[in-house]
Amino acid sequence: DVKVTQSSRYLVKRTGEKVFLECVQDMDHENMFWYRQDPGLGLRLIYFSYDVKMKEKGDIPEGYSVSREKKERFSLILESASTNQTSMYLCASSWGQGSGNTIYFGEGSWLTVV
Amino acid sequence: AQSVTQLDSHVSVSEGTPVLLRCNYSSSYSPSLFWYVQHPNKGLQLLLKYTSAATLVKGINGFEAEFKKSETSFHLTKPSAHMSDAAEYFCVVSDSTGGSYIPTFGRGTSLIVHP
After folding, report:
1. Which of its termini does chain A have fewer beta carbons within 10 Å around, N or C?
2. In this structure, is residue A31 part of a structural domain?
3. Residues A50, A56, A59, A65: is their CA dihedral positive or negative?
4. Which residues constitute the domain of residue B108?
């Protein structure tokens, strides 16, 4: 089975702190994604990556950056956390470039910024 | 451009009665369509997907969906709801717009199942 692992399930950080959310997948997938999920808004794409060291902005990249130094790992970075970044963050991965490829999700990381 | 609309934010049913979760999509190309389920405090799990083969797609846990191109719909159904079906459901569309395959998610439908 495909496994997408988000190392931190619950985090509490202070305003202005730098926050790292880590994600690892074990299926050699080319594509990796970071989404933010808020009630009533569904999933919104922050960044995605098609390959190592490659990244593309999604719909809401402001206040975030990403790093993909190895194929299996995709990190989301909040340079200076703010209270409006309190949310659930979901990492996902998929294989190749086909529109029909299944996206596999991690369990999510709940971030609270105080 | 692609988009997806889930027509109900909440659906409430009694255990043992049919479930209907509605989804309409917009796509410039032949799309792939998915339904995902999310149980509380969990990630999303694939229920089923349509990728231009049979228009009636069967998924896990007794769910199925029918792709209707003329109506641009991909509604999710189940003949008899179970308490364990209570969850959030997301309809997803993906096509090759602009050469990329970034899926677009609906805002979700919360399924409530009463005993």
Report:
1. N
2. yes
3. positive
4. 3-114
Instruction: Provide the pLDDT for residue A47.
Output: 96
A58/B106 CB distance under 8 A:
no
Nearest residue on chain A to B53, alpha-carbon basis: A100
Does the CB of B39 have a partner CB in chain A at under 8 Å?
no
Alpha helices in chain A (DSSP H): none
Distance CA B7, CA A99 (A): 23
Percent of chain B with pLDDT over 70: 96
First to last CA, chain B: 41
Characterize B24-52 residue by residue with b for buried, 16 or more Cβ atoms within 10 angstroms of its Cβ, and e for exposed. bbebeeebbbbbbbbeeeebbebbbbbbe
CATH assignment of the domain containing A91: 2.60.40.10
